[in-house]
Amino acid sequence: MTARMQPRIIQLVGLGFTIAYAVFIIWIYATEPRTFKEVSTSAEVAAGTYEVDQEKFNSALNFFRREQFRAARVEWQQADPAQQDARTQFYIAYSFYREGWGRVYFDQELFKAGVEAVNRAIALSSTSKLTIDDPDLHMNTAAELKAELEQGLERNWSDVNPLKVLRTRK
Amino acid sequence: MPPTNRSRNCALVDSFVLPFLFLTVVLLGGLRIGAESGTFIFIAPPLVTLLLATLLMLLLVRGGLVRLHHWIGSDFPPLTNVAHIWTFITIFFASAQAFNSVLPERGLLHWLFSFFFLWTLWNNQFASFNARRLLRSLTVLFGTAFVLKHMLLTSLYSPEGGWLKRVAGTLLQGVALGTLDAPTFAAATGYIAFFTLALYVAGLILLAFAVNGETTVVTDLVVRESILGDPRD
Description:
The complex is a heterodimer of chains A (170) and B (233).
Chain A: H1 2-31, H2 36-47, H3 54-65, H4 69-79, H5 86-100, H6 108-124, H7 142-153
Chain B: H1 3-29, E1 31-33, E2 40-42, H2 47-62, H3 68-71, H4 78-102, H5 107-124, H6 131-157, H7 163-171, H8 188-209, H9 216-228
Antiparallel strand pairs in B: 1-2
Helix pairs in contact in B: 1-4, 1-8, 2-4, 2-5, 4-6, 4-8, 6-7, 6-8
């Protein structure tokens, strides 16, 4: 009986192990990590243990407050390499907004990148309304930021209104 | 070998070693390394490789490497049937990825290579095969494709200008190679492809030797032929 059981156990364990291996391969091809570091980051995301690097996040926030938006984005991208944190993505979008905002015109490329980032932030916080409690910001919700960015991308007659130079950056 | 050890080893090879080998081929078959960035690039198997893999599976069944009636049957325990079906699936995807590793990624060459593979496999459907002949044929097929893609074409498209590029440049002066465009990858891609194909062929050899109930017939046949030579040769 035991002798008959052993091959069956080997079959079961082998089947379980190789199915898990196949799932890993499908996951690798679905996520397409580019480096071993990305493999481990994606694994952390999948396991639910992924966390933003708080030190880098704070450093980016300092850059942001000093209006060094590109440097801030570099730090935030390193703080959230998997782009899985709604708050970080919101700030990245905000940095695109502030850098792209101009009294006479808005930088379309930066605003487009901002819309992409704010969409990521909204998607990541789909269960609840994303609100950032930061007194330095004039727009505290992702919805407001998205509307402002999208408005900046629209072309209409108000673009030729000379009074628009009086508008303020949020 | 005592029957208990035999059955344990059979189960180990059937349910663990073979699927693991073939799944590793699935993992590595689509892996390329970027030439400049040195990052991983995963290329999912194109549709044509699934067609090629289907033809190859038919060949494996015809050649006796996969003996379906000894693998799956109503007399076998359900777990054995499931394990064998799973192994069969892994062989299918490993075959697709083995083709993926030797097919140029895009352009005219991709379709030329695909056409030649299709032609060869379709012709082989009507040839008489046994396990040994089939293994030999597949080794030569994948070996040739490997040399063509990872040695000749890599040399042709090398940014530094390999020896073949210089020869082609001399022979085809004034002829643009634009239609034969292919992406360039790091040298490590060739090593990965070699390892992948070696694993695939090793898996097929192991499959031929897999002591799977009555499949000892295949083993005996392969061993006898390798010692005495194929009587049909």
